[in-house]
Write a structure and sequence with these properties.
This protein is an alpha/beta fold. It contains 6 helices and 5 strands. The chain has a single domain, classed as Maf protein (Alpha-Beta Complex). It is 41% helix and 24% strand. α1 crosses α6.
């Protein structure tokens, strides 16, 4: 089974590979750089879902895969504060689509303030924690949870949630 991920980020590729291998043994995962259309720091769930959908569709088509997977992180403001969020969209070659949230957590106001100024979350977190390229490692979620849940872990769960429609198709008809 060929799986195409609409990103070359190793965190996203590992999350997809680990999740798919829970259910299928013959899995080949490839990451592709695609023009997903989302901003560098999506600030709404709608934009993240649209970006993840485009990533999944383009990856599926370009790789001629069985499944295309798009993963998109975003931030959003609420009455309680700013949250970090993640979305996963999986499309198959038959046009069926699974969508899931990978989890949300409230961010410190120190980070939120910088993101509201238009800065990208990864570099803001890098600066705060003294790291480099955190978005391709444990991610902001990893730093804020003392690595109890890393970015890979969160996206893996999101991929599994999005796979539900493919694991139990009769319930989604």
């Amino acid at each position: 089974m060929k799986i195409a991920v609409g990103s070359k980020n190793p965190v996203k590729i590992k999350a997809v590979e680990t999740a798919f291998k829970r259910f299928w043994t013959e899995v080949s995962v490839v990451g592709l750089e695609v023009d997903h259309g989302a901003s560098i720091q999506p600030s709404s769930q709608k934009e993240a879902i649209l970006g993840a959908t485009k990533r999944a569709q383009l990856a599926l088509e370009q790789a001629k895969a069985d499944y295309g997977v798009g993963l998109e992180g975003n931030t959003f403001d609420s009455e309680q504060g700013m949250f970090l969020d993640g979305w996963v969209v999986i499309v198959n070659k038959h046009g069926e689509k699974g969508i899931a949230n990978a989890g949300s957590l409230m961010m410190p106001e120190k980070i939120a303030k910088e993101v509201r100024k238009g800065k990208e979350l990864g570099p803001v977190t890098d600066e705060l924690f003294g790291h480099d390229n955190i978005k391709q490692k444990e991610g902001t979620v990893g730093m804020l949870t003392n690595n109890a849940i890393t970015r890979t872990d969160a996206f893996e769960k999101g991929v599994i949630y999005a796979l539900a429609r493919f694991l139990n198709p009769k319930y989604y008809k």
